[in-house]
Specification:
The complex is a heterotetramer of chains A (about 650), B (about 500), C (about 525) and D (about 100). Chain A is mainly α. Chain A contains 25 helices and 2 strands. In chain A, helix 2 runs antiparallel to helix 3, helix 13 packs antiparallel against helix 14 and helix 14 (about 310-330) packs antiparallel against helix 15 (about 335-365). In chain A, about 60% of the residues are buried. The relative contact order of chain B is 0.10. The chains are: A mainly alpha (about 650), B mainly alpha (about 500), C mainly alpha (about 525), D mainly alpha (about 100).
Chain lengths: ~650, ~500, ~525, ~100
């Protein structure tokens, strides 16, 4: 299929959005239509994407193909076309987003069918796909920014989908505002780039930057650091990760699609997109890698002590995103994208799996009018008997994320750690990053297994009567799970390392080569070879296995009490349970002071007190009181009038005697 | 028309035709009163007669002016130039207004004394002499002929102690002030050896200003400054304006003030054109003081009548600022502003006269509440007047203020201009509340404003006033032309400065 | 199209006609009964709109100078003519005004329940005043329009306003008059200086522009600029001259708030672009003035946003958000780069649309619930989905979401200013965060959260008439967000011309071209 | 010639009149002080006319007539207010003030 049809991939979901939106306003009960249109447009878009991919498979372009739609902004030297860009990188993202997106749409049909806002949900979901695709395909930073903000908006709407709950609306707002802090960085980065390069087109940046800017210079470093601030916001890195766990307030498919597979990886995509700039700024790359590694370990520790199944997965997402940044920060852009892809597979699977678990739990509690928390893994246990399919698939995903060969996660995570270690030769700090990454890997395996164990193994804690109502989800939901399961298992094949016995080797790397070449020239990837390499692999596998076993053992060692009777956490566990009290910290350090100052200092004091009170009304009052003084002098006594008269007369006469 | 030879009786009669007509009418009315002075009809008749007389005088004036009458021969005591004609026009308009307002008012308030009109006409004659005087003797006579009847008019409501008090205060301090003026004349005469302004002008141009003449000049300024109620010689004005019957107040606020200013302009610009530095500081001071005091004190008044009294002090300040400019532009601005001020004030007091009873001292900002609901046209008229006094674009008042401002800024001395605009801003603080009260508040009771309706005569005055305010506000072209032309006809070399706005 | 217009001599009569039609209409409307008055007023404003649309094609903005210049005899002795002209910038302002007026009339049909004829007559007079300000090229004429506009607004607020309307109207009147009176003195002083230099007395904009550097004026230029600055800064309104805005906005009837926000505020920025800066570039770009203005603009952006965040009253919130938005415009204007100025203009137009729509929406919900307290709502998205949808879209536009009009302006302003004032721009950019904060918070408290107040259960959703009022604004919001190019192209020559006047000798295009060339090598 | 001395004398008389107006509270007395001022000026007119010809003397006649007229009117007004307040003390006349 000719790449010029690329606009179709955006147009299709948009049509879906219009249709579903109209239905949501006019005829919400028409769920059948929605159930067909919603996923339908996505599948169509996926088909188009596959078609284009197939068309370019044989002869990949060495230059990105740009398809301008119309001239958007034009002011002085700033000419921005609303243009779509097709190259190897955007194609990979395109396939992942539309593919995984379609699966999740299908899953949602089963998951949300009972919800009155069914049509509205799919309208939002389609709209999200529109913006996500603009983000991926945008040929310049501003166009990308359109998608960037748009997905933020949809995430806001979907997190607050059940807006009747204040907590959900709060979470949505938090997500948007925290993202805005990141966007601030993105904007400033754009300004710097525009005034230093005179363009915001990715292609032109890639060609201009090396010739115009100094490697490691202040300009490029500043630009990349601000850019990374944006990425940190979108991809939930320290210090802006706080919104992602709250985002779990949204429906589970949303968590799978937006907060695991697609939107949150946009930051990684952006770094890969502008790899040239990052490659020119070693400092920024180090910052990226460092923040990534730190986030990976930090989030992983929190994951250890979460009981909400989705919160566990949320922190694991944060942590995995950290990995991706560790990768791109180590100039291993391919590895980063690779992990992005595999993570999309297994994390989407995990979320959807948790979705079907919650689905079952919810039905059980709903049937018995119990008000227990359907997401708390302390209320689950032994579910593998009731949800066998879900159990098997989630187990596969767990092995994948833990990094057990030959599951997909193993290859991507291993490549990231290896390249981080490799850069250590140049900058020893990277050894530290590698160590953090490795430690995070251990914790990942541990908390994932803990979650699995508490959910599926041991004896059931849901309750005697509820237990009857637990049952596997319908086909429409398990179907996508199975597809994702397969992908999580074999996903690694797209980029097998050299040491792997069977080809194809480095598929993704060779595919992306034309896009990442400029960056690679400036900062080549360093994968250690020979003994070191094998040692690293061994260590990685060992870590994964230890983590899993330890997780299983410690969790099931002592009986678990259901949420109600669960004892209060103590010691460091409590700190972890409360996520290091970071939210409380932000709230009391930033939010409340800001509101307080605005209300009492700026508004009441400065605005109403000083400017209006003293300034405006004050001067008016002054005039009035002066006038009052005048009326007092107007005593009605002729004698006094005469005196005033004479004073004036004397003054006048004096004025001529000089 | 050929130049009029002021040495022949015919010439004098022609030149003085308007004054003579007014005086004659006054005498006729007086004579009439000898037989007819009992009923309302009598006083109404007297009023109508004097109205006719004034209109005829106006016609005569028009004839003279359009004929472009000029004087021939040596210096004479009464000016014969466009500026005098314009001045006479202003004065006559003011006194016509005074008559129209009085016609029904006196009847309503039970002041059935037709002498009122002969006094008014006599005062008018005095104003005309004063405004046209080109000799200090005529100036003095005109001033007195104007003042003495006005003293009586102020005290005209014999049943009302306030009116009597107003009359007495005005009389005593007025006589006191005219003594100053007289002394000024004496000193100027002593210094220059003449009382003819043209002679004085050439003398001062030649030899500069001796101290004696300077003192005399200042005493003249004091005397006239008193008549126009400029701070600090204004203290009488609020009380007198307040106590006098409303039509009299209107007459004083317009006619007397106008005549005083026109005389002041002529004295300064014909008599002392080249010694401008000697009187500019003084006038600037008076102007600033008047603007500030008048506006600030007006801000705190509750009674509209008294508020208008103070605002008239403020307007005296604006006019003094125009005179201060000492240029043709200033002279033109003075004329123009007087025109707008006279029209607006007549209309305002005309409306005020029907809003209350017994001297209208109790008419406050609150008592006009909701007037727009009951008497829309009356409210509209008053609103227009307020915006015109405020000097808001679209009204004659703005054109006048604009003229003054451009005259001042022309003098490269913008402090006065800034004072003017800032004090005008303050004035918004007391003009707007009236508009607000009329339009944005609801009537106090069902009965309120029931009796607030203009009688025929006053209605004519108000209607003409308001219409002219709006017309000249939008199309000031004719007024600007005439004032600029008349000002240009002024003698006095000292006025030929770049300051004059001449395209 | 253009041929048709030229065949009817459109360009010769359009500007005066645009000024005359509303006033003439006002005279008629004022004498009608309520129902008829509504219809006639609507008809007049629609005719006005249709008439003005021709300008889009007929005015050739490519030169960047004034087109359709016509000077009619008025007061020759004072060198005053009734001179009208239009360029790319005023074109947009005129169209913005003529587009909004029919909506304002239509939007008032239910809101205004007393003394309708007067109300609609005043709206029409106001139209003349606003259009006059944008097309006057004689300083006397400009001043007259500038002031005359106050009266209808004063009555609109004072008669049809809310509880505290008397205070608000007087404050609005005196506040604005304070600034403009000093400007009046400055204008006269300029005319005087020019007259001394050239011997001709003329209030013509071009004459003064040419002679603003006259020796007599250079000395007092700072004072003259200060006078102009005050007049315009109060209108914009810039911090700290903004406190009239919240009161006026809150008390004014819906249409009044809309006009205030969408047109009147723009007159301030327009005044800077057209008069203050071109007259006195050397003063405007002296270190001191730049520092003061830019910091005031940035303070306004952040301060306005923060104060807006804590407002209990929706209208007050929007009022302070205007302070913030106009701060962007000021920053862009002073940046004097093509992007900055274009951005400032887009902010002016975009703000006109989004804030106008916001005020309409607030008015509509006010008509239903008779309160503007944010706390009185919550969760109404379930009852009034269409209202909530539109409110969300408009709010997002005002937040500056890419794809909607708000973003274009802010982005261009910030890009443009970054070259001139990097630090200030950096701070200003935080405005995008606060904007999201206050608007989303308000949005949540109004349409989201639990629907806990019974009186909100039964609010009816928007009627067709209200949708008709909002539709043009929404279309504009989306159109300008996705395809602003035509508008930008119309304004670009004028913007460049402004920069040439503001920063003589500075390369208008900025650095971009050179960088491209380097890259090519 | 006595020009100088007589001018000084008239100035002194004028000042006495002014002082009287300033200090006294009785309407009649006040009025008499004003008359004194007028006649003081008359004196200077006469004196000056020795230097400048008869204009001054003409002026004197006018002033006297005017003074007479003022006297008539003034006394009438004082009578009028006396009817109301039964007093000619200016201290009591402050109904109009503020």
């Amino acid at each position: 299929m000719n790449p010029s049809w690329i606009w179709l991939t955006i147009a299709l979901p948009f049509i879906g959005f219009l249709v579903n939106g109209a239905l949501a306003l006019a005829k919400p009960e028409a769920k059948r239509v929605v159930a067909i249109v919603g996923p339908g447009v996505l599948l169509a878009a996926f088909a188009v994407a596959v078609g284009i991919f197939a068309g370019l498979w044989g002869n990949p372009p060495d230059q990105p193909l740009v398809f301008p739609l119309w001239a958007w902004i034009g002011a002085g030297g700033l000419e921005i076309n609303l243009a779509l860009q097709v190259d190897q990188l955007s194609l990979v993202m395109l396939l992942v987003v539309t593919g995984v997106g379609s699966l999740i749409h299908i899953f949602s049909v089963g998951y949300m069918v009972a919800d009155p806002g069914f049509a509205r949900f799919f309208a939002y979901l389609n709209l999200f796909m529109v913006f996500m695709l603009i983000l991926i395909l945008g040929s310049s930073l501003p166009v990308l920014f359109v998608g960037w903000e748009g997905v933020g908006l949809c995430s806001y709407l979907l997190i607050g989908f059940w807006y009747q709950e204040k907590a959900n609306a709060d979470a949505g707002k938090k997500a948007f505002i925290v993202n805005r802090i990141g966007d601030f960085g993105a904007l400033v980065a754009m300004f710097i780039l525009f005034w230093s390069l005179g363009t915001l087109e990715f292609a032109e940046i890639a060609t201009l930057a090396p010739t115009t800017l100094a490697v490691g210079g202040a300009t490029v470093t500043a630009a990349t650091l601000f850019l990374f601030l944006g990425c940190a916001g979108k991809s939930a890195q320290i210090p802006l990760y706080v919104w992602l766990p709250d985002a779990m307030a949204g429906p589970t498919p949303v968590s799978a699609l937006i907060h695991a597979a697609t939107m949150v990886t946009a930051g990684v995509y952006l770094v890969a997109r502008t790899s040239v700039l990052f490659a020119m700024a070693p400092l920024s790359s180090a910052v990226v890698a460092g923040v990534g590694a730190l986030t990976a370990i930090f989030a992983a520790t929190i994951g250890l002590r979460q009981y909400d199944i989705k919160k566990v997965l949320a922190y694991s997402t944060v942590s995995q995103l950290g990995y991706m940044f560790l990768g791109v920060g180590s100039a291993a852009y391919t590895a980063g994208v690779f992990h992005l892809v595999t993570h999309a597979f297994f994390k989407a699977l995990l979320f959807l799996g948790s979705g079907s678990v919650i689905h079952a739990m919810h039905h059980a509690y709903h049937a018995t009018h119990s008000h227990d928390d359907a997401q708390d893994i302390r209320n689950m246990g032994g579910l593998k008997r009731y949800l066998p399919t879900t159990f098997i698939l989630m187990l596969l995903a767990t092995l994948a994320i833990a990094g057990i060969p030959p599951f997909s996660g193993f290859f991507s995570k291993d490549e990231i750690l290896a390249s981080a270690f490799g850069r250590g030769a140049e900058h020893p700090i990277y050894y530290l990053f590698w160590a953090l990454g490795a430690a995070a890997a251990l914790l990942t395996a541990f908390y994932m297994m803990r979650m699995m164990a508490m959910t599926f193994w041991g004896e059931n804690r849901t309750g005697a009567t509820e237990r009857e109502h637990l049952h596997e989800a319908p086909m429409v939901m398990t179907g996508p799970l199975i597809v994702l399961g397969v992908l999580s298992v074999i996903g690694g094949v797209i980029n097998l390392p050299a040491f792997w016995p069977t080809p194809p080797h480095h598929g993704l790397e060779r595919w992306l080569e034309p896009v990442l070449a400029p960056a690679a020239r400036l900062m080549p990837v360093q994968i250690p070879h020979g003994a070191t390499e094998y040692a690293l692999i061994g260590a990685a596998i060992l870590i994964a296995v230890v983590g899993l076993v330890a997780g299983y053992r410690t969790t099931l060692a002592k009986p678990i009490t259901a949420a109600q009777q669960a004892p209060e956490e103590v010691g460091f566990a409590k700190v972890l349970f409360h996520k290091y009290y970071i939210d409380e910290l932000y709230h009391s350090l930033i939010v409340r002071p800001l509101v307080g100052i605005s209300r009492f200092v700026l508004w009441r004091f400065v605005d109403q007190g000083v400017i209006d009170g003293a300034g405006v009304n004050g001067s008016a009052g002054l005039m009035k009181s002066l006038g009052w003084l005048g009326t007092r002098l107007q005593s009605g006594q002729l004698g006094f009038y005469v005196i005033v008269f004479l004073v004036g007369a004397v003054w006048l006469l004096h004025s001529v005697i000089r | 028309m050929n130049p009029i030879d002021m040495r022949t009786p015919l010439g004098i009669v022609t030149a003085m035709l308007p004054e003579l007509i007014v005086v004659a009418t006054s005498l006729v009315v007086l004579l009439l009163n000898a037989w007819r002075h009992r009923t309302a009809a009598d006083s109404r008749l007297a009023g109508q007669v004097s109205l006719v007389g004034l209109v005829v005088a106006l016609a005569a004036l028009a004839a003279l002016w359009s004929g472009g009458a000029t004087a021939a021969g040596p210096p004479h005591m009464v000016a014969l130039d466009g500026y005098r004609f314009a001045a006479l026009g202003v004065v006559l308009v003011a006194s016509i207004g005074g008559v129209l307002l009085a016609l029904d008012y006196l009847e309503r308030e039970g002041m059935l004394a037709p002498e009122y009109y002969s006094l008014l006409l006599m005062a008018t004659a005095g104003m005309m002499y004063l405004a046209g005087a080109e000799d200090l003797i005529v100036l003095f006579l005109g001033l007195e002929v104007m003042s003495v009847p006005v003293y009586v008019m102020a005290a005209f409501n014999r049943r009302n102690v306030l009116s009597a008090e107003a009359g007495l205060k005005y009389f005593l301090i007025g006589a006191f002030a005219s003594a100053f003026l007289l002394y000024g004349i004496a000193l100027v005469y002593g210094a220059t050896g003449s009382t003819a302004l043209t002679v004085i002008g050439s003398a001062t141009s030649a030899q500069g200003l001796p101290v004696m003449a300077g003192l005399g000049l200042m005493l003249l300024v004091i005397g006239l400054g008193f008549k126009v109620a400029s701070v600090p010689f204004h203290m009488w004005a609020p009380d007198v304006y307040d106590g006098a019957p409303t039509p009299v107040t209107a007459f004083m606020a317009t006619g007397v003030k106008a005549a005083g200013f026109l005389a002041l302009v002529r004295v300064l610009m014909v008599g002392f054109p080249n010694t401008i530095d000697s009187w500019q500081p003084a006038l600037g001071g008076l102007a600033a003081a008047s603007m500030i005091v008048g506006n600030l004190v007006a801000l705190t008044q509750r009674s509209i009548k008294r508020m208008l009294a103070y605002s008239s002090v403020a307007h005296a300040g604006y006019l003094l600022a125009a005179v201060w400019a000492g240029s043709r532009a200033g002279a033109a601005a003075t004329l123009m502003y007087l025109g707008s001020y006279v029209l607006t004030t007549i209309a305002t007091f005309g409306i005020l006269g029907v809003l209350g009873r017994g001297g209208e001292r109790d008419v406050t900002v609150d008592s006009v509440a909701g007037l727009a609901r009951r008497r829309p046209w009356l409210a509209f008229a008053l609103a227009v007047c307020m915006f015109s006094l405020l000097g808001f674009p679209g009204t004659f008042g703005f054109v006048g203020k604009w003229a003054i401002l451009s005259a001042i800024t022309a003098e490269h001395h913008r402090a006065l201009a800034v004072v003017l605009v800032l004090t005008s801003l303050v004035s918004a603080g007391y003009y707007l509340p009236i508009v607000r009260s009329m339009y944005m508040k609801d009537p106090v009771s069902e009965a309120s404003h029931a009796q607030a309706s203009l009688p025929a005569a006053a209605r004519i005055a108000v209607a003409i006033g308001v219409v002219l305010i709006l017309v000249f506000g939008v199309a000031p072209q004719p007024v600007v032309t005439s004032t600029v032309e008349t000002a240009r006809a002024f003698v006095g070399t000292g006025l030929d400065r770049v300051a004059d706005l001449r395209p | 199209m253009n041929e048709l217009l030229t065949s009817i001599g459109y360009n010769n009569w359009i500007l005066p006609v645009l000024l005359v039609v509303p006033t003439a209409g006002a005279l008629v409307v004022g004498l009608l009964k309520a129902e008829a008055a509504k219809r006639v007023a609507l008809a007049v404003t629609v005719i006005e709109l249709v008439l003005s649309l021709g300008l889009w094609v007929s005015v050739d903005t490519s030169s960047g100078t004034m087109e359709l210049v016509r000077a009619y005899r008025w007061i020759p002795q004072w060198g005053i003519t009734f001179a009208l002209g239009i360029d790319g910038i005023s074109l947009m302002m005129v169209l913005l005004t003529t587009l909004l007026m029919p909506l304002c009339v239509l939007g008032s049909f239910n809101y205004i329940t007393k003394r309708e004829p007067g109300y609609y007559a005043l709206l029409l007079v106001l139209t003349t005043g606003m259009l006059g300000v944008f097309v006057a090229i004689d300083m006397f004429l400009f001043y007259v329009f500038w002031e005359v506009m106050l009266i209808p607004m004063y009555f609109l607020i004072g008669i049809w306003g809310g509880k505290n309307r008397l205070y608000a109207s007087l404050k609005f009147f005196i506040y604005t008059m304070a600034g403009s009176l000093l400007m009046l003195v400055a204008i006269l002083a300029m005319v005087r200086g020019a007259a001394v230099a050239t011997g001709t007395v003329s209030f013509s904009y071009f004459h003064l522009l040419a002679n603003a550097g006259a020796p007599g004026l250079v000395a007092i230029a700072p004072w003259l600029f200060l006078a102009f600055f005050l007049a315009f800064a109060i209108k914009v309104p810039m911090f700290p001259f903004h406190t009239w805005l919240p009161d006026a906005h809150v008390e004014a009837p819906t249409a009044g708030s809309v006009i205030l926000a969408s047109v009147l505020l723009k007159m301030g920025t327009y005044g800077f672009l057209r008069f203050a800066i071109p007259f006195f570039p050397s003063v405007a770009y002296s270190e001191l003035v730049q520092g003061v203005v830019v910091s005031l603009a940035v303070i306004g952006i952040v301060y306005g946003a923060l104060v807006a965040m804590v407002q209990p009253d929706i209208k007050k919130l929007v009022a302070y958000s205007s302070v913030s938005h106009l701060g962007f415009a000021m920053l862009g204007i002073w940046a004097a780069t093509v992007q900055g100025v274009q951005g400032a203009l887009m902010v002016m137009i975009g703000h006109g649309f989004s804030t106008g729509a916001l005020f309409f929406l607030i008015g509509m919900i006010y008509e239903r619930r008779h309160t503007r307290e944010i706390a009185a709502f919550g969760g109404i998205a379930r009852v009034v989905p269409i209202f909530s949808l539109i409110l969300t879209v408009v709010a997002l536009a005002s937040i500056g979401l890419p794809g909607l009009n708000g973003f274009i302006g802010e982005f261009l302003v910030l890009v443009g200013s970054f070259k001139t004032y990097p630090i200030a721009t950096g701070i200003a950019t935080t405005g995008v965060i606060f904007a999201a904060a206050y608007l989303l918070w308000a949005l949540q408290r109004i349409i989201f959260n639990r629907l806990d107040k019974p009186e909100n259960e039964t609010i009816p959703d928007l009627t067709v008439r209200e949708l008709v009022v909002l539709a043009p604004l929404l279309i504009g919001i989306v159109w300008m967000g996705l395809y602003p190019k035509p508008i930008l192209d119309k304004m670009e020559p004028a913007a460049k011309r402004y920069i040439e006047m503001a920063r003589p000798g500075q390369p208008v295009e900025g650095v971009t071209i050179t960088a491209r060339a380097e890259g090519a090598r | 010639m006595l020009l100088g001395p007589s001018l000084v004398l008239s100035a002194i008389l004028f000042s006495i009149g002014v002082a009287g107006v300033m200090l006294r509270r009785n309407a009649i007395i006040l009025f008499m002080c004003v008359e004194l001022m007028l006649n003081a000026v008359n004196l200077s007119f006469v004196a000056l006319s020795t230097a400048h010809g008869f204009t001054g003397q003409v002026m004197v006649f006018f002033v006297m007539t005017v003074a007479a007229a003022e006297a008539a009117v003034g006394l009438a007004i004082i009578l009028a207010i006396f009817r109301h307040t039964k007093s000619v003390d200016l201290k009591t006349m402050n109904l109009l003030q503020g």
